[in-house]
Amino acid sequence: xxxxxxxxxxxxxxxxxxxxxxxxxxxxxxxxxxxxxxxxxxxxxxxxxxxxxxxxxxxxxxxxxxxxxxxxxxxxxxxxxxxxxxxxxxxxxxxxxxxxxxxxxxxxxxxxxxxxxxxxxxxxxxxxxxxxxxxxxxxxxxxxxxxxxxxxxxxxxxxxxxxxxxxxxxxxxxxxxxxxxxxxxxxxxxxxxxxxxxxxxxxxxxxxxxxxxxxxxxxxxxxxxxxxxxxxxxxxxxxxxxxxxxxxxxxxxxxxxxxxxxxxxxxxxx
Length: 270
Hints:
Elements: H1 2-21, H2 29-41, H3 47-62, H4 68-82, H5 89-102, H6 108-123, H7 129-137, H8 139-146, H9 148-163, H10 168-176, H11 178-184, H12 187-202, H13 207-222, H14 227-230, E1 232-234, E2 240-242, H15 251-269
Antiparallel strand pairs: 1-2
């Protein structure tokens, strides 16, 4: 019964935590018995069971309970299979969603070598706009997961594609994550490539895209600031914040910081 399998998945994380705390007594129980069940249920025929399996997997990754070998040899391969071009549409949408969510929990090497090539392919998926929209909405997180070099070499070209997508929802999603993408790039790329791209979004024919771009204007400008003088930094959750200063700063350096804070606050409020 699907309800039984769903309930089982909901119990996996607390059982895994118990086994981790009692590891001397159960050194291999999780890897031998529980992890294979989680991986198998990612392809279950029932979507509720798959959803429960995905949620369980994310909790296990967040708690650092999954071994690196299991991530690379068991989890990533099944997600790559599910997100393949010839995969079932429903499975593909779920797979790209879980790939985007787990990217921030994995090592940079694993994401770059195993998941990034597929993510770039999915950004250009011409069959399902839902897939492209998930990629656009999580683009900043992927950039943060792989770092500056891979972002500028592989992801920025895909970001340009998404920012000019024929579906306005894609362009709107890009505008909303623009700050996170900009923060990962070098000042030169930020100035020469992203600034003109942002102008195109702020001049978009769709008012929803323009509105999202204007709301991201302050945070985007903040990425040009010198962190040592402005005190601006990006939290782990991707939000803009100000690091408390240990010494007084002059009024010239303080004023831009205050302006950016107000613009960022208004963005969050809306």
